[in-house]
Amino acid sequence: MSITFNGIGSGLDIDSIVGAIVNAERAPTENRLNRLETSTTEELSAIGQLNSALNTFLASVEGLGEESLFQSRSVSIGDRDLLDATAEDTAEAASYQIQIEQVATAEKIATQAVTSGTTEVGTGTLNVYLGSNSFAVDITSENNTLSEIRDAINDSENNLGVRASIINDDDGARLVLTSESTGVENTVSVTVDDDDGDDRDASTGLSQLVYDPTDIETVGDGGVTHTGLELNSAQDAIVHIDGLTATSASNEISGVIEGVTLNVLDAQNSDDFANGDTINLTVGNDTQSTKSAIENFVEVYNGFIDVVDQLTVVVVNDGNTGNLTGALTGDSTVRNIVSTIRNQLSIGVDSNPDDFQFLVNLGLSTDQEGRLTIDESTLNNALDNNYDSITNLFSGDGALSERLTDALSGYTGSAGVIELRQQGLQTTLNGIDDQREALERRISLTEDRLYAQYRAADALVGQLNSTLNFLTNSLQASRSSNDDN
After folding, report:
1. C-alpha torsion 288→289→295→300, nearest 10
2. How far apart (Å, rounded) are the C-alpha atoms in residues 141 and 441?
3. Per residue in 439-476, pLDDT tens?
4. Smallest Cα–Cα separation from 87: which of 77, 73, 97, 76?
5. Is 435 exposed, middle or buried (0-12, 13-18, 19+ CB in 10 A)?
6. Distance CA 356, CA 360 (A)
7. What is the pLDDT of residues 167-224, one digit of tens each?
């Protein structure tokens, strides 16, 4: 009887045998590591979502705690076509009746006309006055056309704020000078030091451009303008606030009402002014910004609760697949954070009046699902009539912002519970990688050992088969020999 194998040597399928044993050795540990990696990754992701939602919530809380939010002021104006205004937080809440007699304007003058912009006017020094101050522009044969004089004024590094241009009218080309600043103190004048020796001559030389109606350099002639024109006169803004008069070189008037900057846009018409009609300006608390901050706080809090619900959800299935739960269902950290926040939301501020110590007094309440809701009417009434109490609820010592920040400090930040937990989960994930490497090393050694054992067995069986074949052949040869005899 012979032993028959289909493979080399022993005929055993060593690769399949070793592979099956190795896989059976690897499977329990690999499955355990896969389950651990999946659950750890899901938990780490969930903790990250919780941390992000909590930080967003705390940012809104800190915004409500800023004193500047409740100190900011709003301004209402009866006629914004005539007047605009801004108020700093130092402004007192009050109403003012304002009349605008005139707006501040900038002076614009045109010098005597010459033939054209390319006409050579003369040489010397052009002195351009802005109020009582002046800057000098040297005019030579290289830049003495009217256009070149315009450019020399505009390009002067000493220019005090006068822009030059050219207008061509029926009489010719005129150099037009405009003050960049409003007010009677910023009138524009032009004198010259003419190289032809006559600084006031209207017919020849640089002196053709003189426009000096007040004899600003006191030469003694009472003033010279030649045929120049005042295109727009300089004037100050004049406003009357509750009957008191204020004059300003600028249409932006600050300091008249403490903490308020007026921006005069236009004057009242003469009839309205004469009749004593006024523009009402009211400085008050910026209730709209405060309301927006409260609404944002409620929205962000509800968003935080939505995230918590998603992470701790329990969904009961039909009995075939079991219950589905969130990654943080039953988690004590989540439970403690939510409990801490809700406890702080329910605490009152003793320093407020008895009827305004709690969030519910300004229209904020919790519904059956744990979310905050706003009663719009109650909130608006509180903003209009209890603004200081609203401030005390959210900002300052013992207010909601301070309490929540302190109560949650153990969970947030680099040393908080959430950060430490994230670090621990990441350490677990790193350890899984190390365990996989160790598993592969152990499996490799097991595989090498099994191959060595089965190869030895394969060689032994091969030798036995060879011996068996030899003996069988010998017996058959002996039997044939006996039969022949």
Report:
1. 170
2. 95
3. 778 878 877 787 777 777 666 766 776 777 777 777 77
4. 73
5. middle
6. 8
7. 999 999 999 999 999 999 999 999 999 999 999 999 999 999 999 999 999 999 999 9
Give 470-476 contacts, CB < 8 A, sequence gap 24+. Answer: 472/2
Residues β-bridged to residue 121? none
Maximal C-alpha separation, the chain: 171
List of residues 6+ apart from 352 with CB closer than 8 A = 389, 392, 393
DSSP state letter for 325: E
What number of other Cβ atoms are within 10 A of residue 228's Cβ? 24
- Tell me the three state secondary structure of residue 97: strand
Residues 10 and 412: beta-carbon distance below 8 Å: no
Distance between CA atoms of residues 81 and 100, nearest Å: 12
State pLDDT tens for residues 18-51.
778 877 877 787 788 778 777 778 888 888 899 9
Helix (H) or strand (E) holding 282: strand 279-285
370-415 pLDDT tens trace: 899 999 999 999 999 999 999 999 998 889 999 999 999 898 877 8
Q: Are the C-beta atoms of residues 101 and 248 closer than 8 Å to each other?
A: no
Contacts of 461 (CB under 8 A, 6+ apart): 3, 5, 9, 10, 11, 12
Paired sense of beta strands 94-102 and 279-285, if any: antiparallel
Measured CA to CA, the distance from residue 189 to residue 212 in angstroms comes to: 5
Which tokens go with 201?
Answer: 């001559």
The dihedral sign for the CA sequence 182, 187, 192, 193: negative
- Consecutive H or E run containing 264: strand 260-264
Please state the domain extents for the chain. 1-72+286-470, 73-104+236-285, 108-232
Cβ neighbours for 353, distance < 8 A, ≥ 6 positions apart: 386, 389
What pLDDT is recorded for position 461?
67
Return the structure tokens found at 239. 């406003």
Place of tokens 């614009």: 108
Residue 33's pLDDT is what?
Answer: 75
Tokens of 329: 């269902």
Place of tokens 């004193």: 67
Q: Flag whether the pTM goes above 0.90.
A: no
More confident residue, 337 or 460: 337
DSSP assignment string, 191-237: EEEETTS-SS-SSSSGGGG-BBTT-TT--SSS-B-TT-EEEE--B-E
